[in-house]
Write a structure and sequence with these properties.
Layout (H helix, E strand, L loop, with lengths): L6 E6 L4 E6 L15 E6 L2 H12 L3 E4 L1 E3 L2 H12 L2 E2 L4 E3 L6 E7 L2 E7 L13 H4 L2 E7 L11 H10 L3 E5 L12 H5 L3 E2 L3 H8 L4 H9 L4 E5 L5 E5 L2 E5 L12 H14 L4 H14 L13 H6 L3
Parallel strand pairs: 1-4, 1-10, 2-8, 4-6, 5-7, 10-11, 11-12, 12-13
Antiparallel strand pairs: 2-3, 8-9, 13-14, 14-15
Helix pairs in contact: 1-8, 6-7, 8-9
Length: about 300
C-alpha cells in the first residue's frame, strides 16, 4: 500500500437490507397464515455483507453504491459504518427507494424474494478515477442484479487494472436462468468467486473439476464454493482443494461473501493460495453460526484458530 492509498478494497455494489424469516414452513396463498420461529432486519446484499466481512478481518474497505434517503437506506449506511466500512462515497438519491430482500430460511435452504429498488442504478461512470487510485483491489458482486453496471463493467475492471488494482467478481445467482453475457468480463477478472451451482450453470458442465478448468482458462483464478464440502481453487494447471470445518449451521445467508472476504484477506496480504483458500473456507463456515449475513462473521484471530 502506497502512502496515497487509503483502502485495501473498494466494493462497487448494491445496497439493500434483508428481512430474514426463519421457520420450517412453506408459504401458501389464499390468505393462509403460518407462524415463524423468528424475524430480523439485517444487513443484506452480497456486496454489503462482503464489505462488512472484509472489514471484520481487518481490511480497510470503501463502498460505493446507490440507495434512497429512506428507512432502509439509512439503516444500511449506519450498520455498514458501524462495522468499519467507509460509506462516504455512497450516492444517496432523494425520493429513491432502497431495495429489500425477504428471505425465508428453512435449515440450510432458503427462498429469496427481492424488490430491486435502486439496486441496479450504480453505473461505471459513478466511480471516479480518484477513488480507484485510493485503493488496491476492486470487488463486484451481484452481477446479474446490477444491470446499470453490467455494460461497462469490463472497461471498469480494465480501468482499475490501469491504476494497478486487482479485481474480483462474484456473480451470484442469475434470476433469468440464462447465465450469459460476461465472457469479456471474466477476461478482465483476476479472481472469480462462483459457487458450485453458478459454476456448473455458467459452463454447462456436469462436473465441478472440468467447470473449474474451463473458467480458469477465461479468468486469472477461480475459487469455487462447495458449501459443506469446502472449496476448490483452479489457477492455470494447478488445482487446490480445501475441506470445510464442522459447525452448527443456523443461517447460510452471506456465507459465500464471508468466503470471498477471507480469500481476499490472504491474497492481498501475500499469503500462498492454499492458505488463502483455507482461510476463506473457515470464514464462510463460521459465518453460518448465527442469523443474518454479518452477525457471526469472524475476526482474523477467531478464524486463525481453525487454521492452526
Amino acid at each position: 500500500m502506497t502512502p496515497d492509498t487509503l483502502f485495501d478494497i473498494l466494493v462497487a455494489g448494491e445496497i439493500n437490507p434483508d428481512l430474514i424469516l426463519t421457520g420450517d414452513v412453506m408459504p401458501q396463498f389464499k390468505q393462509t397464515e403460518k407462524l415463524l420461529d423468528s424475524a430480523a432486519l439485517t444487513i443484506g446484499s452480497s456486496s454489503a455483507i462482503f464489505a462488512c466481512g472484509a472489514a471484520r478481518l481487518g481490511l480497510k474497505v470503501a463502498f460505493i453504491g446507490v440507495c434512497g434517503d429512506d428507512v432502509f437506506g439509512r439503516f444500511m449506511l449506519a450498520e455498514m459504518q458501524q462495522r468499519g466500512v467507509d460509506v462516504s462515497n455512497v450516492i444517496v438519491r432523494e425520493g429513491g427507494q432502497t431495495g429489500l430482500s425477504v428471505i425465508l430460511n428453512r435449515g440450510v435452504d432458503r427462498a429469496i424474494l427481492t424488490h430491486l429498488g435502486l439496486i441496479a442504478d450504480l453505473q461505471s461512470s459513478d466511480i471516479p478515477d480518484r477513488l480507484l487510485q485510493q485503493t488496491r483491489h476492486l470487488h463486484v458482486a451481484s452481477y446479474f442484479l446490477q444491470t446499470g453496471l453490467q455494460p461497462d463493467l469490463p472497461s471498469l475492471f480494465q480501468r482499475a487494472h490501469s491504476f494497478g488494482l486487482t479485481t474480483s467478481l462474484d456473480t451470484n445467482y442469475d434470476p433469468s436462468g440464462k447465465w450469459i453475457g460476461f465472457a469479456e468480463l471474466l477476461a478482465a477478472t483476476d479472481i472469480f468467486f462462483p459457487n458450485k451451482t453458478e459454476a456448473l450453470s455458467i459452463t454447462g458442465r456436469e462436473e465441478i473439476e472440468s467447470a473449474a478448468k474451463q473458467l480458469a482458462s477465461k479468468s486469472g483464478q477461480v475459487a469455487i464454493k462447495l458449501g459443506a464440502d469446502g472449496a476448490v481453487l483452479q489457477t492455470g494447471d494447478e488445482t487446490i482443494f480445501a475441506s470445510s470445518i464442522p459447525v452448527k449451521v443456523v443461517d447460510t445467508v452471506g456465507a459465500g461473501d464471508a468466503f470471498d472476504a477471507g480469500f481476499l484477506y490472504g491474497y492481498l496480504n501475500g499469503w500462498d493460495l492454499e492458505t488463502s483458500l483455507r482461510l476463506a473456507v473457515v470464514c464462510g463456515a463460521l459465518s453460518t453460526q448465527d442469523a443474518g449475513g454479518t452477525t457471526a462473521q469472524p475476526t482474523l484471530e477467531q478464524a486463525l484458530t481453525f487454521l492452526k
